[in-house]
Write a structure and sequence with these properties.
This protein has about 450 residues and is of the alpha+beta class. The protein contains 16 helices and 16 strands. It is about 30% helix and about 20% strand.
């Protein structure tokens, strides 16, 4: 069967599974794995069958586009596009993030200072809505309101079955320059300069991110696509990528390895499982050094609480999970990092500059009402993932609430893949409540899909 026929059958299976959900019951995906950190109440009703929506339908090297099914993992998508010397405009850091997930839940990576967020390279989407309709949504068509509201809707308006995305050419290697900074203001100034000029020290910059180990030690990593590299590093073996930054002024990776440089150790979170210890690393099979393996271990811990019980037995304080990505305007980034260093005992943290994309000929960036970043403004995504001790006079969630308040005070935004504590009024103000409700009433009038606030805050 041709790919179009396979896709049609997958959509038919999706429709049948929707019809099998009893009337009045909530509709959810029949999907066991996730890159989200929001616990939710389990349901026993049948889920939507998306098992056939995991592939790449077509790559058009001339038009530099790809038609991709919604549940296609980026590792599958990258394999298909690199074969043509192309890659998606933004490839999120973890292999098992799906294209549909990155669009409806936001994604980011080191090309975001040039190319924005993954949903900004989407040309059209087929959305299976909460009403059981399959609609093709484009920026200017009949369902342009759905196209605009889909990013950051977290599956509360519908699920993408097919997306057409733009691609960009790449070369064999990524040459890296690791710039060390001992002053956060100088770091921020350098980010602004690279973003404004697209270069550093006379050399072009195609990718940019960074790591902050502390206020007096930070690294800005500048990547340039190239076909010529004297030698390429390998961080899937004994070496750990983020640990290489202090010791190397320059580096190079195969483009494939660069795209997944953070996945092997889940940034630095693999250290919680001992995987970065040289002995454990030699014994831990390479094929299991992947973010989805670590994520499964975290889910097991959340379910059974073995480590938490051991900590209590050892007399250690209870811990609060602090797993967040926030976008801070560039001119407030140093201020936030200093606040974070004083108030949240956690390091390192990840930096990833971004701005909304202005497509060629468009003249301005498109508005995305459910995650309303300001057009023309440069932000820095700051990611931090771990736990902090709960102080004797504090409660679980206090640190996350303080982060939310500080992000808002600094004019920033917070992604919703993890814990959120906003009240309904604040949430609607920050995440396009009026636009969302209009789209919800049109495309899921019976509210079969769990609402955005309920998913993000109530954790249903």
């Amino acid at each position: 069967m041709e790919r179009s026929g396979v896709h049609d059958e997958a959509v038919a299976a999706l429709r049948r599974s929707y019809a099998a959900v009893p009337p009045g019951e909530p509709v959810r995906l029949a999907k066991r794995t996730s890159n989200l950190f929001r616990p939710r109440t389990p349901v026993r009703t049948p889920g939507l069958d998306v098992g056939g929506l995991t592939g790449v339908l077509a790559v058009d090297p001339d038009a530099r586009t790809a038609d991709v099914q919604g549940m296609c993992r980026y590792e599958t998508l990258v394999d298909a596009t690199l074969a043509h010397g192309l890659m998606p405009l933004v490839v999120p850091q973890l292999r098992t993030i799906t294209l549909g997930g990155a669009v409806t839940g936001l994604g980011i990576e080191s090309t975001s200072f040039r190319n924005g967020l993954p949903h900004e390279s989407v040309r059209e989407i087929d959305v299976f809505t909460g009403a059981g309709e399959l609609l093709t949504s484009t920026p200017d068509g009949e369902h342009a309101d759905l196209f605009a509201a889909f990013p950051n809707s977290l599956g509360s308006l519908g699920y993408a079955t097919r997306l057409r995305i733009e691609l960009q050419p790449v070369r064999r290697f990524v040459a890296l320059r690791n710039l060390r900074f001992t002053d956060l203001d100088a770091l921020v100034e350098a980010i602004g300069q690279v973003s404004a000029t697209g270069e550093w020290d006379g050399q072009p910059v195609d990718a940019m991110d960074g790591v902050v180990f502390g206020p007096d030690e930070a690294y800005l990593v500048l990547g340039t696509f190239t076909d010529d590299a004297p030698a390429a590093s390998d961080y899937t073996g004994q070496e750990v990528y983020y640990r290489s930054l202090p010791g190397r002024r320059t580096d190079a990776l195969r483009t494939y390895d660069y795209l997944w440089r953070w996945d092997t150790d889940w940034f630095w979170c693999s250290r919680a499982f001992g995987v970065q210890h040289p002995v454990v690393r030699r014994l831990w099979p390479r094929r299991y050094r992947r973010s989805d393996v670590y994520h499964r271990l975290v889910r097991l811990e959340n379910r059974y609480g073995v480590a938490a019980r051991l900590d209590r037995w050892r007399g250690r304080p209870a811990a609060e999970r602090v797993v967040q990505d926030v976008e801070i305007p560039l001119d407030r980034t140093a201020e936030f990092l200093r606040w974070f260093d004083r108030n949240v005992p956690m390091s390192p943290v990840w930096l990833c500059p971004l701005r909304l994309r202005e497509p060629a000929g468009a003249g301005s960036a498109r508005n995305w009402p459910l995650y309303p970043l300001r057009a023309g403004e440069l932000y820095v995504n700051i990611g931090f993932w771990g736990t902090v001790p709960i102080a004797p006079d504090a409660a679980d969630g206090d640190v996350n609430r303080a982060i939310e308040r500080t992000v808002s005070e600094l004019g920033g935004h917070k992604s919703l893949y993890s814990d959120a504590y906003y009240d309904r009024q604040t949430f609607d103000r920050l995440y396009g409540g009026a636009v969302y409700r209009a789209a919800k009433d049109r495309y899921d009038p019976d509210h079969r899909l769990t609402g955005l606030y309920e998913k993000a805050v109530d954790r249903r």
